[in-house]
Specification:
MarR family winged helix-turn-helix transcriptional regulator, WH-like_DNA-bd_sf, about 150 residues, WH_DNA-bd_sf, elongated, mainly alpha, Arc Repressor Mutant, subunit A, 2 strands, two-stranded antiparallel ribbon, about 65% helix, 7 helices
């Protein structure tokens, strides 16, 4: 890979631009790939939270966990959760408990395999050490600027 600047120039580059450009490239790629199999990224998040849960989660629990993912508001997340129910991927009982359907489990497996492929694509040529260092540096930027971030 050829970099856009030499090392001396890179240290003068704005982190805001490069973190935005990385975000934009990664999220655009993920969303396009998921759209190709018939899902939005928020629908994937909902499905993954239900499919991976050790114990049954309620709508409120999933909504709280996902309410701030990539700027997705709680109202929008509620709509995406409703859509996963309409699509037949999850069910909701009268007490708000969410369950995965057989169709949802099948779709989850397909989407999870796609996510694994996308992860490998993004990480090509990047060692675990480089990745870990990158995340630690980004977390330090967030801390140094008084920001808050959390990801499950």
């Amino acid at each position: 890979m050829e970099y856009s600047h030499n090392d001396a120039e890179l240290i003068q580059q704005p982190i805001g631009y490069w973190s935005w450009a990385a975000y934009n490239a990664v999220v655009t790629r993920i969303r396009a790939a998921l759209a190709g199999i018939g899902a939005t990224q928020p629908q994937w998040w909902v499905l993954a939270q239900v499919a991976r849960a050790d114990t049954v989660r309620t709508r409120d629990e999933v909504s709280r966990l996902l309410q701030n993912y990539l700027g997705t508001g709680s109202e929008s997340m509620e709509e995406e959760m409703d859509r996963t129910i309409v699509l037949g991927w999850i069910t909701e009982d009268s007490e708000g408990r969410l369950g995965i359907t057989a169709e949802g489990r099948e779709f989850y497996a397909r989407a999870a395999a796609l996510q694994d492929e996308l992860w490998a694509e993004r990480h090509a040529g990047i060692s675990d050490e480089e990745y870990r260092t990158t995340l630690k540096v980004l977390q330090r930027f967030i801390h140094n600027t008084g920001g808050h971030a959390w990801h499950q």
